[in-house]
Design brief:
Number of helices: 19
Number of domains: 2
CATH topology of the largest domain: Na+/H+ antiporter like fold
CATH architecture of the largest domain: Up-down Bundle
Strand content: under 5%
Order of helices and strands: HHHHHHHHHHHHHHHHHHH
Distance between the termini: 91 Å
Shape: globular
Helix content: over 70%
Length: 423
């Protein structure tokens, strides 16, 4: 029974709905933790359970008016991705990591788009958006597995560097596709209005984001500002930039990522990113629970075959792309053969991009896009840790303990020598 049938006060409805969503997400993680699954999986499942197709606890008018949570969550995600574009680290890693990342991301995206267009006959817009979203990789599951087994070595270093840049490539690919679709969507317009103007707006967003990163470095000095004030300043700049982009009907992803990139490269502190990471969990929890609530269970029937094909095509694209990139850069054999197996998980950024992509498509295909990404995201997060663990063992980074030659049960019992009795 929805709350709106019991409570008439709109303020009470909002507050209680937020409490239910937060509580459901928290309780779901108690279950997924025992199953060794990521929190994101629990949040999505919690949203499905309390959503309109099962318990229907939240009034539709409430979560329909919470689109700002999506924009806010994506702003923080993109800002956090920007920290991995520190130029000194990229120079130290060399161009090899960039080649591998571009290869495994873009090959997976292109393969998905081609299959969707040629095999199923979907529109160019749908195919390109799904391919761009398929570029993303969720690093949390892989990193969690690496930390669990305390794995180290060249293979692990390559994984960490690739997954750090992977989401940035997905954001760039998605923004490029969105700009193209916005430009191609105008009917009866001029070249300047339909093609050049959206590109100009996107460039302005990047410029404003870069200026915001430089300004953040100037005004958020840890020696002059408290942690609370620095967090407030980050919120002001991110909300302003996101609102600016939303007003122009463009994606805020590149602008927010540019803010994080410029901030870290002009001498900003990594502590600011850690502080925002401690602030954002409730926002991200709400975002993923809302995403689960928007998952159309009836649409799973129509998305069944398409979703299964997407699931396996993306895995194939990631593996072949990683192998190709490693081959081009001369990476060692174990890295070349097994890196793709560690890049399977997909969750956070891809779900956010799916919500944005849904806005760019007609209702039916938009719902199908979101359904494919949300349902496959749960599957990816379930199989991802096992695949990451397998890649560590297959690459030789971790070795299984050798069986003892003689078990303790088969060893002869040796009694301590008895001391001679004194006469």
């Amino acid at each position: 029974m929805a709350l709106s049938q019991l409570i008439s006060s709109e303020s009470a409805l909002v507050l209680l709905s937020l409490a239910i969503m937060l509580g459901a997400g928290f309780l779901a993680t108690r279950v997924t933790k025992k199953l060794h699954l990521p929190n994101v999986t629990g949040y999505l499942l919690a949203g499905i359970v309390i959503g309109p197709y099962l318990l229907n606890l939240i009034p539709p008018i409430i979560f329909e008016r919470m689109e700002f949570v999506t924009d806010l969550a994506l702003a923080f995600i993109a800002f956090g991705v920007g920290r991995y574009f520190k130029f000194s680290d990229l120079r130290r890693s060399g161009t090899g990591i960039l080649v591998i990342t571009l290869s495994e991301s873009l090959l997976a995206g292109v393969l998905i788009a081609v299959v969707m267009r040629l095999l199923f006959g979907y529109s160019v817009a749908f195919s390109l958006l799904l391919g761009a979203i398929g570029c993303a990789t969720a690093p949390a599951s892989t990193i969690m597995t690496i930390r669990q087994y305390k794995a180290k070595g060249e293979f692990v270093n390559t994984i960490l560097q690739v997954v750090s840049l992977d989401d940035a490539v997905a954001l760039l690919a998605f923004s490029a596709v969105a700009a193209y679709l916005n430009a191609a969507g105008g009917a009866g317009g001029t070249l300047a209005r339909d093609v050049l103007l959206p590109v100009l707006y996107q460039l302005c967003a990047v410029a404003v984001g870069a200026a915001g990163g430089w300004l953040l470095h100037l005004i958020a000095d840890p020696e002059r500002r408290s942690a609370e004030h620095r967090l407030t300043l980050v919120l002001i700049l991110l909300l302003s930039l996101t609102g600016f982009c939303t007003a122009l009907n463009i994606s805020p992803l590149l602008g927010c990522m540019a803010m994080g990139t410029v901030y870290i490269n002009v001498g900003g502190s990594k502590k600011l990113f850690k502080m925002t990471a401690r602030f954002t969990p409730p926002i991200l929890l709400l975002f993923f629970v809302l995403s689960g609530m928007r998952l159309s269970l009836p649409a799973l029937r129509s998305a069944g075959v398409v979703g299964v094909v997407y699931f396996f095509v993306r895995i194939l694209g990631k593996y072949l792309g990683a192998w190709t990139g490693c081959r081009l850069t001369g990476a060692p054999g174990p890295v070349r053969r097994w890196l793709g197996l560690a890049l399977i998980p997909q969750a956070g950024v891809s779900i956010g991009l799916a919500v944005l992509g849904q806005r760019l498509l007609p209702d039916e295909t938009g719902a199908l896009l979101a359904t494919i990404i949300l349902s496959s995201g749960v599957l990816y997060e379930m199989v991802g840790p096992a695949c990451a663990k397998a890649s560590l063992f297959l690459s030789g980074t971790l070795r299984r303990p050798r069986a003892k030659r003689q078990s303790d049960a088969c060893r002869p019992l040796r009694l301590p020598a008895r001391k001679p009795h004194a006469d």
